[in-house]
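Handout, section 4.2: multi-component inputs.
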Amino acid sequence: MFKRYTTLESVTLNHPRLTAVLCCGGNLMAASWHTPLSRVPFRYGIAIRPQNDTHALLTRIGHCSLNFLDIDEYEKIDYTGSVHAHEEKKSDHCGFNVMMHDANANPIFEHALSVFGCRLHDKIETGDHTLFICDVEEIFLSDNTALEPTLFMGHGRYATLNEERRVSLRV
Ligand SMILES: Cc1cc2nc3c(=O)[nH]c(=O)nc-3n(C[C@H](O)[C@H](O)[C@H](O)COP(=O)(O)O)c2cc1C
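Output:
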């Protein structure tokens, strides 16, 4: 049986969503509403609410890094998604270790599986979020195979993959 809803207002989606930390203008924001949009050129969409300080920052600055982090970082990720830039300087408190920077001086964190260096291409108002369409100008992939992705399921629940299944590839 299923419960039926017609809006998201009273629902917490229970499917796991890959979660990243968006870094822009020295600020950090947890983001789980994002998706690839094009392979060539590589474009990536991130949905951001106008109430978040990141919305104005990314609009003004026009570039960011998107860090896809290991599950052990979940409390730090959650912190960046629970506090606004105008309330606290999150980069002073979050505890992420900056390993290097992308071409636009946005941080690349130590326990990232991958990081996108993004430049804003376009914006579309989709409703109560704005879709920021970014050109991914740089892709950083970690060679640490022990890292596991962070998945968010709402209401403070985080998980990672615990089983991989493979199909045989068609040639
Ligand atoms: C795991 C997680 C994922 C989130 N994903 C998004 C998202 O995709 N888009 C968004 O606008 N807010 C998202 N949020 C909420 C923002 O991260 C949160 O409002 C944050 O405090 C905004 O920071 P800022 O005001 O410094 O930009 C998420 C929060 C959490 C905890």
